[in-house]
From TrEMBL:
Location of the Heparinase II/III-like C-terminal domain: 345-565
Lineage of source species: Bacteria, Pseudomonadati, Spirochaetota, Spirochaetia, Spirochaetales
PANTHER family xref list: HEPARIN-SULFATE LYASE
Main location: periplasm
Localization: Periplasm
Key words, A-Z: Lyase, Periplasm, Signal
All copies of domain Heparin-sulfate lyase N-terminal, residue ranges: 39-273
The name this protein goes by in its record: Heparinase II/III family protein
Length: 637
């Protein structure tokens, strides 16, 4: 065990410090749920001076009670005992299990408090891991508690669970508990349920349908727990589940930010995903995940793997993925990427369905990371309580998207429901060397509208420093259009004519916008974690227009120590044969000059023509074209 302590001290000192802090709090019956994967985290502690009230609710949020009932602190205590051999940690871990079984045994009344199936499963998995580490798994009282949990979880079967992350996580606990009790009949039942749920829940691109990276990770972690348990007991595991776990891990890799966190999409937090990907690589024996992994075996697996496995993992051969940009078309998530280092750039384009109740009104939203730094961000989730902050953070205005006539195309109804959901159509992705393109339509302002508008958004990533966002607004009526842009909370913004300058630690960005737009800057809500609410700089750009029109936004970002100028000039577009000058409703073109680099010319065509179009040095028939030097690429015809 000294080897394990050295392993954690050397490679994961911050995690070890956090682990011991949480274990020490638990010794004094003090609870603060701020470990990296605590789903509904808190940074405010509560201490039970005497007896623990397992139904206690802090403030107005029942999620605190649910976090308490999941018993993650029991595993923290067991892990702290393994590291320190301090008997106080072991004794308190066992005491918590016995106290819960005595004070809060299963009852129908508790199914909405301490015995929701999700929480009961997570509690059971934490308890089993803890008692295995403490080598007290044969305790009669503990075995009775495991049976109580598996008896309950075996009864939990419904259409809701079939199509929810709850069902997979709940049955992962049933599987683990059943094999622990050598109950092969129930283990098989749990495995069958999970396989059936996966057939519905995991889309063909590997994402869990609810559209939340956080819950995607939780479902994947549940599958990995099942795989670990099957290996422990020599169970002939269903290869279908293993294959789905590989698909989910591959999606997680393709969707990660350069800093190895996931994006704040839907109900998610700003969380480092390397530990989950490392566990997946280890258990699935998948070297293709290496670029998203730690160099060493992550803490959780290290407690169970043993010295030989830890050393073997560190010696493994690594390789980069066989792709860079990633178009997850089934879920509608496109990731335009310049490379796999932490200093690379990545643009995430949301062009799919909302998913479940965890989804936000983020159709056509764009996240942008430039040279490893957040520039454009999502606003986060903050809470699940039915309050104004929840409503604000789920609405369109909290995302980098477009609102027409001050009305949302996806209409918020309650914390888990929408009165109306916008539809997406005509998604496209194209990659030409180091240039990437994505496109999609928002049909939400067509549905039942008296004066309909079709919104088409195109994204062009030219290099690590340059992203173009182009919106075409097709209508025959007069409308007001509001573009929302949310910048990193680390940034300071200044607005001038046709440009927004953003200064953040290590990165300087400028968002160029077209003449005739009114810019309003303010600070809006930002929640990088649950229960963690702050503000970030935001800008709203507004235009009133009659009939169809378009808008170009150019985001130019450079490291602070490598500044470059950027100028944008609109070019006339004319026919190669007719020499006719085309109107802005037919085609538009721009020349972008970045420092001393060769100029970049972009042409976007809105209507079909019967001749080649010319702009600057560019001659093309395509609908989306980029030209630089001797290179011309057509992304769309």
């Amino acid at each position: 065990m000294n080897y394990l302590k050295t392993h954690l001290e050397t490679h994961f000192p911050n995690y070890l410090k956090l682990l011991v802090e949480h274990a020490d709090r638990a010794l004094g019956q003090c609870f603060q749920f701020s470990m990296p994967w605590d789903m509904e985290s808190t940074w405010v502690s509560h201490t039970f001076e005497q007896a623990i009230d397992w139904d206690y609710q802090m403030a107005d949020d029942p999620e605190w009670t649910f976090m308490l009932s999941r018993s993650g602190f029991v595993l923290h205590l067991a892990q702290a005992w393994v590291i320190t051999q301090d008997s106080r940690y072991a004794e308190k871990a066992v005491w918590y299990i016995h106290d819960f079984l005595k004070q809060a045994p299963y009852s129908v009344e508790r199914e909405k408090i301490t015995w929701r199936s999700l929480d009961a499963s997570m509690r059971l998995m934490h308890w089993i891991d803890a008692m295995l580490l403490l080598k007290q798994e044969d305790s009669e009282q503990f075995l009775a508690g495991v049976r109580m949990h598996t008896d309950y979880l075996a009864t939990q079967d419904s259409e809701f669970l079939l199509f929810s992350n709850w069902g997979i996580i709940g049955n992962a606990g049933l599987f683990k508990g059943s094999l622990f009790l050598h109950d092969t009949k129930r283990a098989l039942l749990a495995q069958q349920r999970v396989a059936q749920s996966l057939s519905y829940q995991i889309l063909s691109d590997g994402m869990q349908w609810e559209q939340s990276p956080l819950y995607h990770a939780e479902v994947l972690s549940a599958l990995l727990s099942m795989i670990q348990t099957a290996k422990r007991y020599g169970w002939p595991f269903d290869s279908y589940i293993t294959d789905k776990a590989k698909d989910m891990a591959a999606f997680m890799l393709g969707s990660m930010k350069p800093n190895r966190h996931h994006f704040l999409q839907s109900d998610s937090d700003d969380t480092d995903i390397r530990d989950v990907l490392t566990r997946a690589s280890f258990l699935l024996e998948d070297l293709s995940l290496a670029v998203g992994c730690f160099a060493e075996l992550e803490p959780y697996s290290s407690f169970f793997a043993g010295k030989e496995a830890i050393e073997s993992f560190a010696r493994r051969t690594t390789q980069e993925p066989g792709f860079c940009s990633f178009a997850a078309m089934a879920s509608g998530n496109i990731y335009l990427r310049t490379g796999w280092t932490e200093q690379d750039s990545c643009c995430h384009f949301r062009c799919g369905q909302i998913g479940g109740g965890h989804g936000h009104a983020d159709l056509l939203h764009v996240d942008i990371v430039a040279h490893g730094h957040d520039v454009l961000v999502d606003s986060g989730r903050y809470t699940y309580c039915e309050k104004e902050e929840r409503k604000i953070l789920k609405q369109q205005a909290s995302h980098n998207t477009i609102v027409v006539d001050g009305k949302d195309a996806t209409v918020y109804e309650s914390t888990w429901t929408y009165a109306k959901r916008a539809l997406c159509a005509n998604r496209m992705f194209s990659s030409k060397g180091n240039w990437n393109y994505a496109q999609a339509n928002n049909l939400g302002y067509l549905m039942g509208a008296q004066h309909p508008v079709l919104i088409e958004r195109e994204i062009l990533q030219i290099d690590a420093s340059l992203v173009l966002i182009h919106d075409t607004l097709i209508t025959s009526s007069h409308h007001s259009f509001t573009w929302h842009f949310h910048f990193s909370d680390q940034g300071d913004i200044t607005t001038e004519t046709n440009a927004i300058h953003v200064s953040s630690p290590g990165i300087a960005s400028t968002l160029y916008f077209e003449p005739g737009m009114e810019a309003v800057s303010n600070r809006t809500l930002y929640a990088p974690h649950y229960n963690d609410l702050t503000t970030k700089p935001s800008v709203q750009l507004q235009r009133h227009a009659e009939g169809s029109n378009s808008a170009l936004f150019v985001l130019h970002s450079e490291p602070m120590d490598q500044p470059k100028s950027c100028t944008i000039v609109e070019l006339p577009v004319h026919g190669a044969r007719s020499n006719r000058l085309y109107s802005k409703q037919e085609a538009r073109a721009w020349r972008i000059q970045k420092g001393s680099d060769e100029p970049i010319e972009v042409l976007l065509r809105y209507q079909e023509t019967m001749e080649l179009l010319c702009a600057g040095s560019l001659k093309t028939y395509g609908r989306a074209c980029v030209h630089q030097g001797s290179r011309t690429e057509v992304f769309r015809f």
